[in-house]
Amino acid sequence: MTKQQLLDQIEADILDKDVCPDLAKSANSLVMGDGNPDADIVFIGEAPGKNEDEQGKPFVGAAGKFLNEMLASIGMQRQDIYITNIVKYRPPNNRDPLPDEKEAFWPYLLRQLKVIEPKVVITLGRHSMEYFLPGAKISEVHGEPKRRGDLVILPLFHPAAALYNGGMRATLMEDFMKIPKIIELVESKGKEPTNHE
Q1: How many Cβ atoms from other residues are within 10 Å of residue 144's Cβ?
Q2: Which helix (H) or strand (E) holds 40?
Q3: DSSP per-residue letters across 68-112
Q4: What pLDDT sits at residue 197?
Q5: Which residues make beta-bridge pairs with 34?
Q6: Are strands 151-156 and 120-124 parallel, antiparallel or unpaired?
Q7: What is the band of 149 on the pLDDT scale with cuts at 50, 70, 90?
Q8: Which of 135, 44, 46, 49 is nearest to 97 (CA)?
Q9: What CATH fold (topology level) applies to the domain 3-189?
């Protein structure tokens, strides 16, 4: 099976097992992910918003446009990466995803990562970060790569938060500029541990 077929199978399993039925009822679509299944980088947000729910793709609204700009600033495009969210349905009125919703979708996110095998996982916002780096504060660890098992995690602020906050926007762009270097380091070190806490 190709990686895309394996990813499609994860989507079929979510529908089959009726994960988070209340969220599913209030949402238009299951938003699985978008991009290149062979990507070195996977970006993980928290949950789809209104535009994402309507189009069935993650990060297609204002935050997505900003993300595309930042990717362009490091010479990358959407088709070079894979992007998804922890929670795959839009929460009503764009509220934060609840702990049990994140927990219900967590195994499927891990399966996505297992299929794609990225070199770096970039978490966008605290909701996706806290699963990989429990107890960490995003204001303290943003832009610092951390190794967790086979994964290198790079926590970043969520692009949506930076849209309306000039200072955070500058910080996020600065953190973004580190991505090529981090990929390079991971490639040169292979599986050697880097930054243990």
Answers
A1: 16
A2: none
A3: HHHHHHTT--GGGSEEEESS-SPPGGGPPPPHHHHHHHHHHHHHH
A4: 45
A5: 83
A6: parallel
A7: confident
A8: 46
A9: Uracil-DNA Glycosylase, subunit E (3.40.470)
